[in-house]
Amino acid sequence: MSRTALIERNTKETQIKAVLEIDGTGKSRISTGIGFFDHMLDGFTRHGLFDFTLDVQGDLDVDGHHTVEDTGIVIGQAIREAIGDKEGIRRYGSFMLPMDDALCLCAIDLSGRPYFVFDCAFPAERVGSLDTELVREFFYAVSYSAGMNLHIKMLHGENTHHMIEAMFKAFAKALDMAVSYDERIAGVLSTKGIL
Predict the structure, then answer these.
(1) Cα–Cα distance for residue pair 145/148, rounded to 1 Å
(2) What whole-number distance in Å separates Cα of residue 93 and Cα of residue 110?
(3) Which of 104, 123, 124, 107 is nearest to 166 (CA)?
């Protein structure tokens, strides 16, 4: 069975349509109106080996906040829907990823209980047309919409572009690990019997 989700979200601020296939090959078609954000989401798709189609129409005449945050909400919802009942998945994933000067640690628990820790200060306020403070808002939205425990810690970094790219790729690799199946797991990996 294909683990795929189609999510649409329409508000006065954004109109978003996304299709996420967990068991993909890294193909994407992404348009948010924020070039650097598109580049990061493409990296997430490619390195997580997901297939992802995303179209976002946002109020960029205001700023990028609603576009980035609402995209995070939709991606979180898509992850949650695509993984379904979580039977047989590893549940946990972590990855430490280097990107030149940047070194990022990302750890995930698909527990159904959202919690978010973000330990990073970016040297620059913008990369391209993306306000760097929105990176935290994006991952917060993903975490809470997906119902995942998400920790992101920048262990080292000097170049803001590299730091953000390491973050998105580390998240992709950790998520790919957490959603992968382990044939030894019967049901869900929980002492409670549910996730």
Answers:
(1) 8
(2) 9
(3) 104
pLDDT averaged over consecutive 10-residue blocks of the chain (195 residues)? 94 98 97 98 98 98 97 98 96 98 98 97 98 98 98 98 98 98 93 81
Crossing angle, helix 35-48 and helix 65-83, to 10 degrees? 20
Which tokens is 52 given? 């992802």
The tokens of 42 are what? 């493409």
Please work out, in degrees rounded to the nearest 5, the angle formed at the alpha carbon of residue 50 by the alpha carbons of 16 and 136.
60
The pLDDT tens digits for 75-87 are 999 999 999 999 9
Distance CA 145, CA 104 (A): 23
Identity of residue 182: D
Give Rg (Cα) of the chain. Answer: 16
What is this structure's pTM? 0.97
